[in-house]
Amino acid sequence: MNELRRLELPAEVQAPRPPRLVNLLLPARLAWRQLRAERARLWTAIAGVMFACVLVFMQLGFRAALFDSATALPQAMHGELFLINPLTTAMFRPEQFPRVRAFQTLADPDVAQAVPIYLSFGTWRNPVTGVRRTIQLVGFDTATGAVVFPGLEAVIEALKRPDTIAFDRKSRPEFGPVPQLLAERGPFEVQIADRRLELVGLIDIGPSFGADGNAVMTETNFRRIVTQRKASNTDLVALRLHPGVDIPTVAARLRQLLPADVAVLTYDELVAWERNYWETATPIGFIFMFGSLMGLVVGMVIVYQILFSDIASHIPEYATLKAMGYAHAYLRRAVMSAALLLAVLGFIPGILTSIGLYQVVAQATFLPLEMDPERGMMVFGMIFAMCAGAGLLAVRKLRDANPADMF
Amino acid sequence: MPPEGATPPVAIAGLTYAFGEGELRRPVLRDVSLQIRAGEIVLLTGPSGSGKTTLLTLIGALRAMQEGRCTVLGQELLGATEDQRVLLRRRIGFIFQQHNLLGFLTARQNVAMSLELDPRTTEAERLARAGALLEAVGLADRADALPSKLSGGQRQRVAVARALAGSPGLILADEPTAALDRVSGQEVVHLLRDLARSRGVPILLVTHDPRILDIADRIIEMEDGRILSGAPVD
Ligand SMILES: Nc1ncnc2c1ncn2[C@@H]1O[C@H](COP(=O)(O)OP(=O)(O)O)[C@@H](O)[C@H]1O
Ligand SMILES: [Mg+2]
How much is the ipTM here? Predict the structure, then answer.
């Protein structure tokens, strides 16, 4: 008889096989059926995961946006290599170095241009309200075309006139409705450091931690505004190389050539240098990591609670399954599947909500919040790990399901 | 009947078991010897606390052995590993006092759970077989109901179907009628007996219930951890 067939099978025939797909799918299905049966619990768990997800996305989004904007000035520059004083920590607080270093680099056949850039701060007066605010001043030989901020090209001729500046369109609104005024009146008079200047055009740089707004001008005009400084010193040098040369090779040669009072950086290194200051020398990075961690901990506690009570209320059933020949590992897989299902179910609404919130926040704060796939993957990884952690904690409760207590 | 000399489904000799350690050590089973032959229906009775449940959990590989020999479906249980015990359990059908059905699964899905451990079956086969067993216990029309929608007797019948679904070589039941009224209790055990008989599966059933003694081939009485008698029923 068919039913008797298994009686005669020696035990070895049914020895455990290596895990196959079925061995993962069946526990996952059991987990899903159990989750689905308790709607209120399921929604609570999904809401918990979603909450953690949104919190982490917001923290990471703010963090990235702040660091991006912190490096707005170096990012806006075009140059293959840069010279800075190794003691410079950030662009808003540059250490000067001899301008002659710029000209020394021209000894290298691959260096086409060397443009000294002068950085300082001045007090800007809001042209409408008259309120004063500190603005970053960026001066360099705008006519060389070596440093190209977006929009600069259109105003190069106008900037050649004495006492003219170009204003950063992305400066914070506290500086006044400059683009609007410019459109209405054409070039108009503004005041920086008690000096009357003509605002002739707009360029794009963006505010940062160090500076709420920027003004760009020629080297000559810079010197008229900033009078108290040694003319032979500069703050930053942008180097343009001939097309097609190997940048690291040139950088290595320049390091040989120049004395130790300047560092030679590539574009990426310059941005990283600036970013590194804000990440390590300020608590900003830590604050956001802490915020993300809190979100994950709260999410983990919620998921753990749900999984734990799900197991606790099914102890006799789990013990029965064990009596029927289900291995402890099978039930563990079911609990872990439930945890990972919750990760997926919570992540999807979580990322959608975050994309919406990014847009709302970007409009309110002018910070460039954007969802990028890399961050999406990273947060999914975190949420996955969070749920897996909760699952591993909850799995211990399965020990209470002892089939010997069932009779 | 199997030929003389073939190993019986259950063969126990000199089984001794105690709970607790040291000072608190209390023997519960003393030198128990027992054989169940193929297709035999054996009832185990005796006062509460005499060790019936403990004996059942040892035979069912739900507990590790301490002393003596106990061979179940060809597997020696003394010194058996956890994996060996888990594998043996798959070849035994259990029926408990409480039905212990999974509340979030339908009757059919509950029965199919005991087939999911066999990787050779497909989902369609499992559901078809579960349906056939529910029909055999008279629940064809309730196959897709959740346990909460079934009466106590119906639930226990689902549990019977589940115990039989995996084509077990042995059925162990501990007071399966205790939570049922007289009529449904009778129904369930008679169903169990008929299905087991037609498949040639032996049953070891613990009961206090004098009204179901008529299903037995043999009644064994226990007292204070010892077997008193094993008289065959005529
Ligand atoms: N898990 C346990 N730990 C300690 N003692 C137990 C345990 N289970 C049962 N006992 C004791 O073992 C004895 C036999 O119990 P049991 O096998 O349940 O008897 P029966 O099923 O015949 O009523 C009882 O005295 C009981 O108190
Ligand atoms: Mg008992």
Answer: 0.90
